[in-house]
Amino acid sequence: MEYHVKDLSLADEGLKLIEWAEMDMPVLRQIREHFAKEKPLAGIKIGACLHVTTETANLVRTLKEGGAEVFLCASNPLSTKDEVAAALVKYFDIPVFAIRGEDRDTYYSHINAVLDQKPQITIDDGADLVSTLHKERPEQAEKVWGGTEETTTGVIRLKAMAKEGLLKYPIIAVNDALTKHLFDNRYGTGQSTLDGILRATNRLLAGSVFVVCGFGWCGKGLAMRARGMGARVVVTEVDPLKALEAVMEGYLVMPLDEAAEIGDFFCTVTGNKSVIRKEHFLKMKDGAIVCNSGHFDVEIDLKSLREISTQVRTIRKEVEEYTLKNGKKIYVLSQGRLVNLAAAEGHPSGVMDMSFANQALCVEYIVKNHKTLQKTVYSVPEEIDKKVAKLKLAAMGIKIDTLTPEQQKYLTSWEEGT
């Protein structure tokens, strides 16, 4: 079996971490039990480009139990847990190509190692696997049955491809499932981002000014949790509807150009590039802390920051100190990459349980329906979304009401009024 991980001797530690995560992933565990009996993925090759974490390990285990051959590479150079990668190879016979801190060339060689296996289904987080396949192996892309995409950034890229008529196979946008973005993006990102910031800095949030750049679901979760820690939260936005919502939620809303002068912490969660730029760095207070929790490391313009700096040094693990020409110091966390995964452990397993349950069930859906699907981006089927929610509630021991026949009739008729 081909693989490329840092050190197989880390496998025992990784196995324990995988087991720990599994204890809080009851929905995925139920799906794995179903897959083990029914083998709905028998004979299928799956190429996955995901954060190599304990939660991901339980997803790929589930897919393998369903009968699939799974090949895994990292979707971010700083999110890999080397112990988990080793455990997947040693104890589950899953080929993994991922090493924490790998350079760009190694990163793409790992993607190509997965694509060399000729997968019929792809699972992506950020769309690097899909874009590489389309750019470098267009003939191979034509033969892929379908794929899934985990995150907002990837869905944006894939919808752009579909709009231009370039997408060569159907993709299900798992990110757009209600049981994904309402929970994973909001509660997962909110908690794990603060976890990463605190692990990296050990700074007090209470009383600070915390600037959240972007008020999508990730931004909403981050703002909510930062406020809960006692920070005074400022939101910056380009969308008037989201900005208005932030105002109604009680946050200060202003342009980043103004927020730059008062912020102690800055975190980007936009999915766009060059959000924090040269003009903002020059206005920041001495000691400002800057980080990113959007998928790619393009949200903070580090190139311009280096150009206006006289010195860069690592002052603490995951913290780089930039001394500006004006004498001020700016601190960047985790090289501008996902701070929640680079400086912490990513989303808690309890919320990834729903996201990865969607992934597993959508892969099963593609296997059953790929012959009728078009080359476009699909939403997660409603029945899958609701099934995940029901399984999660049941696992939590929570029961809910059901509509009476009279209520069902009322909701589907028009005759009855005041």
Describe the structure.
The protein is of the alpha/beta class and 418 residues long. It contains 18 helices and 15 strands. It has helices at 11-22, 26-38, 54-65, 82-92, 104-115, 128-136, 138-141, 152-163, 178-201, 217-228, 240-248, 256-259, 278-283, 302-307, 339-342, 349-369, 382-395, 405-411, and strands at 45-50, 69-74, 96-97, 121-124, 146-149, 171-173, 209-213, 232-236, 252-253, 265-268, 288-292, 309-316, 319-324, 329-333, 377-379. Helix 2 (26-38) runs parallel beside helix 3. The mean pLDDT is 97. Keywords: Cytoplasm, Hydrolase, NAD, One-carbon metabolism. Substrate binds at residues 53, 125, 150, 180, 184.
In short:
The protein is 46% helix and 16% strand. It is an alpha/beta fold.
Count of helical regions: 18
Q: What characterizes the major β-sheet? A: 8 strands, mixed
State the domain count. Answer: 2
**Helical proportion, percent range:** 40-55%
CATH topology of the largest domain: Rossmann fold
Question: How are the elements arranged and paired?
Answer:
Layout: H1 11-22, H2 26-38, E1 45-50, H3 54-65, E2 69-74, H4 82-92, E3 96-97, H5 104-115, E4 121-124, H6 128-136, H7 138-141, E5 146-149, H8 152-163, E6 171-173, H9 178-201, E7 209-213, H10 217-228, E8 232-236, H11 240-248, E9 252-253, H12 256-259, E10 265-268, H13 278-283, E11 288-292, H14 302-307, E12 309-316, E13 319-324, E14 329-333, H15 339-342, H16 349-369, E15 377-379, H17 382-395, H18 405-411
Parallel strand pairs: 1-2, 1-4, 2-3, 4-5, 5-6, 6-15, 7-8, 7-10, 8-9, 10-11, 11-14
Antiparallel strand pairs: 12-13, 13-14
